[in-house]
From TrEMBL:
Pfam families in the record: DUF8052
Name assigned to this protein: DUF8052 domain-containing protein
Highest taxon listed in the record's lineage: Bacteria
Chain ranges of the DUF8052 domain: 3-161
InterPro entries from the UniProt entry: DUF8052
Amino acid sequence: MESEKYFEMMLDMYYQYFDLYENEEVLGREFDLYAFLEVTNERFMGVKSIKIYQYNDFEHSLVEVNDEFSDELIDDSFFSECIDELIVPESGHHQSFITYIQIVGKPLTSEEISLVENYNYSTSFWLGIRGWCDIRLIVVETNNWQVYANQAGEEVKENYDPHMLADHFGYEI
């Protein structure tokens, strides 16, 4: 029940800025939610017809709701395949994030928390000339409303805080 409530709060959070696809299949695996965001940044000189530069940032969020934590996808080969399928490092690509969010009902063990917090995967394209991609891991425990993240995920961890989401969107937790 709590996991479904949190999932609804996440839908509200993503709704304004992301393209949302529920029950979407990525690499043969069905996710409860796939959310996609593209942000284009441009700088002009004087008028819009004189563009100095343009670059694009992307975020791909893969959300799973599970009864208990699963480390099945916390694997370099899975995320490498995700990058190959989801990221197109063309000219103007600056950075991409693949954010894997797992919403779980049961508490994590200290080993599982350590696995999440110490996971690191990043890759660059054309030695960084065409940008890079970082993997963010977020695990939300709904029985005690704890959020765990890897180093890349720490940047956005507070956005996934259940108390902040509940206050912002008017939910009771």
